[in-house]
């Protein structure tokens, strides 16, 4: 069955060395303690006030990354491995944060979850979001289930899209082209007119691509797997009064192209169409020392895979049509209770629905829902800060569960933050795991207890900083696929347990015209199946990752960036199509070096170029699939008014 949801890699540690960057530009992965973030607490707070590890990919870095995809950008963040980021365009990617398995990192867009109710593990394909529609990204490392619910086990990635900035409307256009006959065009309008804010973006991507599957015959006759994307986003805000604001977001994306039959197997007739819709209607009411926000979101994914008769599919017509819909209604209350306490509380109701038709399996229309109430109390007194939070969830299928967060921190001498976290998290079983032909309606949620301790130290304020984290994560009732001797030959069950632990360390340097970050990370883990057999294999997840990012303002109008990443050995699982037996294969370590050049020709015109995999490294991310060799993208961005 041609499901390219195949994913498991490690979001393990990395070591990022980001040298030179623009004069007033933040580091590629910034942790400046006076930076204000919203993802960790669901309210605006300085990093120095919260005891969590949050990485910011700022707007300047996003602007310097227009020749990359969103998975490529995130793949350079310490602690994250994006499996398949450098595979053929259009192949689904999966994120692994701190060694957690696929689906255990919650993806947000503008603070709202974007799960896929039709996928096996609820994970969302970030190929749906063009980089030119992204303003900045916040990444919370560690459990986030108390404030965000299911799937926020290893952390949260919040993709914040472009919103209205400045008075009056400004228009921009961007054109780029590069390897594999890839062309990207985008246009946007942004600004405020009186009390109305508008941010509208259109983008188009076409790529001839390359063969996604590895040709072991050496004949080189596999087809190029192309990729085409049409995307539009609209963010609106309306200031009704000084205390009341309405907002609306709408993102539409359509991806089309061709895919291989699977690992090591070409298929000239396998085509797909993926449609993504994400919409938000919201309101914010200012209440003296706090605010109330009410939001309703709709997240829909439609996948259509078709395969015309050919030798590879036994001269039969194969198809698969999946649709998943999630409707989420939430009310959030933030309030300052005086000098020492802040409160964030909320209620949430999420309804999930899927309908799947295919040549292999059919899921009739089915749905479930989960209702939650949560609250976190933030205490602050001098150098000491503390978060105490809890969340109650009631699922329509498995019943109730509870998560908690205990997170003390101290901020010493306005430069050193020490923190520790004890938290629980959960991942609810997907609709596919509950009701497919392999489903089990008695599944319980995976439950995780995590421990974290670390520090952020600004050795020289805004110039030199050092960061380090130790973490441990224990998960019980892990959902796994149990093989059966008779039809349907498999079933999803609870029973396995997993334990992961590791560390991350990074050092940041920022001078005039120069910014640098260096990081290293290590992750270990073991999985014990229901029969008690223990293995230290975490498929596609390297134990060690090291990296370096460099940006240097060579001239006032010319900036140069370098990025280096080392990915250690991994184990991947293969499948023998003759004996139908699985086997393990060791994937060799590899080094990637990328370069970025940006020239500000005028106040309105910017020219950029990216040269990726400079040394043409030959490597494999997924067994049986090709990765990109040396490739480039170059283009220009022009502001019309």
Count of strand segments:
34
Oligomeric state of the chains?
single chain
Count every helix, treating DSSP H or I runs of 4 or more residues as helices: 4
Mean pLDDT: 89
CATH topology: Maltoporin, Chain A
| Class computed from helices, strands and strand pairing | mainly beta
Q: Major beta sheet, specifics? A: 22 strands, antiparallel, barrel
The CATH superfamily is known as: TonB-dependent receptor, beta-barrel domain
Helix content percent band: under 10%
CATH class (first level) name: Mainly Beta
Instruction: Tell me the radius of gyration.
Output: 24 Å
Q: What is the distance, rounded to the nearest whole angstrom, between the alpha carbons of the first and last residues?
A: 51 Å
Tell me, what's the shape?
Answer: globular
Low-confidence sequence ranges: 1-28
Provide the β-strand percentage band: over 45%
What is the architecture at the second tier of CATH? Beta Barrel
Number of domains: 1
Task: State the main characteristics.
641 residues, mainly beta, Maltoporin, Chain A, 22-stranded antiparallel β-barrel, 5-stranded mixed β-sheet, 34 strands, disordered N terminus
Structure description:
The protein has helices at 59-63, 70-74, 145-148, 431-435; strands at residues 36-37, 45-46, 53-57, 80-83, 94-97, 105-109, 112-113, 134-141, 155-161, 168-178, 182-193, 196-210, 225-241, 244-258, 270-287, 290-307, 318-336, 341-358, 363-381, 384-395, 399-412, 416-427, 446-460, 464-483, 490-511, 514-528, 534-535, 544-555, 558-567, 570-575, 582-587, 590-600, 605-612, 631-639. It is mostly beta strands and 641 residues long. The protein has a single domain (36-639), classed as Beta Barrel (Maltoporin, Chain A), CATH 2.40.170. The strands form five sheets. It has a 22-stranded antiparallel beta barrel. A hairpin with a 4-residue loop joins strand 18 and strand 19. The longest helix is centred in the first third of the chain and has 5 residues, at 59-63. It is globular, with a radius of gyration of 24 Å.
């Amino acid at each position: 069955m041609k499901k390219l949801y195949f994913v498991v890699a490690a979001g393990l540690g990395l070591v990022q060395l980001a040298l030179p960057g623009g004069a007033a530009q933040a580091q590629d992965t910034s942790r400046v303690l006076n930076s204000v973030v919203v993802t960790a607490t669901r309210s605006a707070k300085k990093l120095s006030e919260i005891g969590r590890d949050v990485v910011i990919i700022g707007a300047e870095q996003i602007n310097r990354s227009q020749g990359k995809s969103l998975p490529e950008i995130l793949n350079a963040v310490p602690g994250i491995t994006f499996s398949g980021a450098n595979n053929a365009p259009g192949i689904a990617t999966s994120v692994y944060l701190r060694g957690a398995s696929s689906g255990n990192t919650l993806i947000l867009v503008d603070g709202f979850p974007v799960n896929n109710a039709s996928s096996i593990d609820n994970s969302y394909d970030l190929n749906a979001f063009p980089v030119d529609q992204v303003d900045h990204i916040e990444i919370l490392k560690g459990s986030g289930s108390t404030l965000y619910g299911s799937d926020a086990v290893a952390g949260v990635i919040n993709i914040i899209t472009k919103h209205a900035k400045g008075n009056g409307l400004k228009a921009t256009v961007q054109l780029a082209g590069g390897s594999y006959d890839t062309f990207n065009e985008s246009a946007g309008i942004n600004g405020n007119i009186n009390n109305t804010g508008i941010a509208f973006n259109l983008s188009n991507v076409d790529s001839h691509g390359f063969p996604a599957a590895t040709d072991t015959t050496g004949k080189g006759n596999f087809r190029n797997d192309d990729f085409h994307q049409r995307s539009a986003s609209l963010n609106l805000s309306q200031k009704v009064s000084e205390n009341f604001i309405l907002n609306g977001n709408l993102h539409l994306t359509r991806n089309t192209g061709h895919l291989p039959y699977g690992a090591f197997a070409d298929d000239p007739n396998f085509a797909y169409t993926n449609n993504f819709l994400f919409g938000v209607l919201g309101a914010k009411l200012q209440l003296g020392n706090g605010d109330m926000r009410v939001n309703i979101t709709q997240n829909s994914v439609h996948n259509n895979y078709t395969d015309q008769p050919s030798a590879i599919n036994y001269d039969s017509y194969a198809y698969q049509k999946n649709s998943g819909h999630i409707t989420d209604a939430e009310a959030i209350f933030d309030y300052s209770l005086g000098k020492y306490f802040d409160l964030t509380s909320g209620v949430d109701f999420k309804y999930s629905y899927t309908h799947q038709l295919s040549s292999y399996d059919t899921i009739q229309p089915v749905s479930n829902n989960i209702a939650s109430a949560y609250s976190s109390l933030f205490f602050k007194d001098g150098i000491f800060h503390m978060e105490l939070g809890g969340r109650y969830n009631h699922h329509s299928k498995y019943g109730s569960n509870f998560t908690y967060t205990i997170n003390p921190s101290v901020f010493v001498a306005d430069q050193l933050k020490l923190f520790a976290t004890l938290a629980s998290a959960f991942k609810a079983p997907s609709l596919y795991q509950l009701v497919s032909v392999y489903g089990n309606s008695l599944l319980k949620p995976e439950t995780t207890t995590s421990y974290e301790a670390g520090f952020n130290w600004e050795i020289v304020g805004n110039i030199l900083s050092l960061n380090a984290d130790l973490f441990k994560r224990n998960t019980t009732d892990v959902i796994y696929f149990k093989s059966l001797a008779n039809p349907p030959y498999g079933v999803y069950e609870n029973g396995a347990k997993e334990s992961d632990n590791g560390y991350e360390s990074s050092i940041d340097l920022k001078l005039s015209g120069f910014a640098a970050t260096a990081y290293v990370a290590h992750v270990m883990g073991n999985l014990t199946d229901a029969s008690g057999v223990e293995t230290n294999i975490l498929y596609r997840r390297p134990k060690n990752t090291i990296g370096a990012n460099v940006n240097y303002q060579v001239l006032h109008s010319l900036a140069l960036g370098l990025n280096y990443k080392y990915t250690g050995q991994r184990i991947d699982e293969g499948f023998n199509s003759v004996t139908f037996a699985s086997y393990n294969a060791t994937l060799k370590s590899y080094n990637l070096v990328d370069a970025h050049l940006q020239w500000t020709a005028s106040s309105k015109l910017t020219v950029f170029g990216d040269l990726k995999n400079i040394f043409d490294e030959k490597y494999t991310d997924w067994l049986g699939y090709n990765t990109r060799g040396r490739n480039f993208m170059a283009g220009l961005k022009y502001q019309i008014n």
